[in-house]
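Ticket 4471: requesting a sanity check on a complex prediction with PMV. Repro inputs:
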Amino acid sequence: MPAISCSAPGKVILCGEHAVVYGAPAIALPVFQVSTTVKITAKPLAPSSSNTIKAPSISLDGSLDSLEPDNPLRAAINLVMRELKIDHIPACEISIHTTMPVSAGLGSSASVTVALVRAISTYLGHPFDNDRVNHIAFEIEKLHHGSPSGIDNTVITYGAPVFFQRGKPIEFIKIFHPLTLIIADTGIKGSTASAVAQVRQRWEIDRDGYEAIFREIGQLTLQIRRDLETGLLDEIGPLLTRNHELLQRIGVSNLALDQLVNAAMQAGALGAKLSGGGLGGNIIVLANPEQAQQIAQRLLISGATRTIITLIPSTDGAC
Ligand code: PMV
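Returned C-alpha cells:
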C-alpha cells in the first residue's frame, strides 16, 4: 500500500481578531506558502496497532499509545476513530512535517490537525469531507486554546478566504482584485490563550469601553469585506491600520509589533496591523505588488525574523 499524504495550509487573520470572540465578524485568509503535510505509511508486517508518530518540529518520535489521551494529536486520531466506530488502527508510521513556526499566529495547531484528520480518515478508508474535518479540528482547537472562535480551523480546512461570525454559517468571500500581503514575524512567541484571557479580564472591568471597540472593529471588518468584493484595495489599507490602533487599545500589541507596523508604513505600505492573538507573532502588511520586496527588506532591517510575501488570488466566493 503506498503512503498516504495529506496537507493543510496556514492562515492569517486579516481583520477582526479578538472582537470575533465577542461576536463581531472577522476575515481570515489561507496562506499556502506555509503548510503541514502528514504522511502515513502502513507497516503490514508489524504487530497490529503498533503505531508510531513522528513530529520533528515538536521533537516527538515515539509510539502513539505513549501520548496522553488529551494530547491534541492523539485526541484528533481518537475522534476520527470514534466517528468511524473503529477501535484500532492497522500498524503504521505517522509522520508530521510542518513549515510553520508555532505560536506565531499562522495557525500551526489547526493546520496540523486538519492534515492529520484528513490523512488518518483516508488511511482508514473513509476520507472525511471538509465539514467533518472542520468539526474535529474545532474540538481540538479547544484543547489548544481554551475557547477559540473557530476561525482558524475554518479557514485552514476550506483553504479559502472566510468571513466568520460566531454562531453564523460560514461565508466564503469574493476577492475581486488579488491582494499582496507581507507577513512579518516579530520572533516573539505570543500565546493566543493568554492574550484572549487578558482581554477578557479587562473586558470584565470595562465592558462598555471594550464593547465599543469591538463594535468599531466589526464595522471595519464589514467595510473591508465590501472593499475586497469590489476591488477597492487602496481603501483597505487605512482600515487595517485603524484596526491595529484598536488592538493596541485592548492591550494586545507590544513594542516589537508596533515597531514593525511603523516600519512598514514608513516604507510605503498601504496599511499594516498585528495579526492573530498578538503579544508577539506576526504583523500583516498590505502593499502594492511592486513595493512588496522593498517593504519586506525594510521589515527585516527593523527586526523582523522572517517575512513571507503572499498573493491572495481573486476568488468568486464559492467553495
Ligand atoms: O493567534 P491566532 O492567529 O490563532 O488568532 C487568534 C484569534 C483570536 O481572535 C484572538 C482568538 C480566536 O479564537 O478567534
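Notes from triage: The pocket of PMV is lined by residues 13, 17-18, 20-21, 105, 107, 145, 148-149, 151-152, 192, 196, 276-277 (CB under 6 Å). Leaving this open until the requester confirms.
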